[in-house]
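Review form for a predicted model. The reviewer records the input and the model, then writes brief findings.
Reviewer: anonymous (R2)
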Amino acid sequence: IGVGVGLAAGIGAAAYGLTWLLLGDSLRVREVHISGRQIADPHEVAAAAALDGKSLLALDAAAAARRVEALAEVKAASVHRRWPRGVEIRLVEPQAWGYWQAAGRRVVIDERGEILERARAPHAGAPTIIEIGGPSEFPGGYVSDPDSVRLVARLVDDDTFARLKVRPTGFVFRRDRGLTVLVEGGPDVVFGDSTNYGFKVATWGALLRELAREPRVAREIDLRFGQRAVMR
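Model under review:
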């Protein structure tokens, strides 16, 4: 009987201790630390997480992160306990890649062509793609031709311009021609779209070497027609 009473008393004490930890003030969130923030409002982040006063033992970190990710200024978030009275919210904010300009309006975009209302500013010298004859509004949240954005991003990322020793001065999109890369000193290059990307870049390089061997006036290289590349 004595053992039974002792065991029951021990269980009761443990249950009381757990209840005290869950409901007491010793392990409740009183400090919210936010890292990775540049543009997000820290008060809005903390309010969205809604963790102040919550028990660290019962805290649903995944649900809090999802609430924070609903903010326009947040691409991804994670929540981590900082014992004994705090949490850290780690943010990944949208990073703008460049700009798309049409009908006198310039919008900020990522490398997929999605329009970003709130994001970290593009890096200095970021590309601007100018659409000729395009709309000023983009109701779908993407620019008129996301493929052109991905194409320019790929040309930049794989150092095509450095390898071919050309300096782009602009990027122009027209619905009837696709993407044209304007080149300092010419010739400009009409890519059209990103299909047969590797072949187009290789052909561009071969034609530049040909022009170096046999100089002639060439205003434009058109790569839209496969093996029938045209120099004008």
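Findings: The first helix runs from residue 2 to 23.
Further findings: The longest strand covers residues 76-82.
Recommendation: see findings above.
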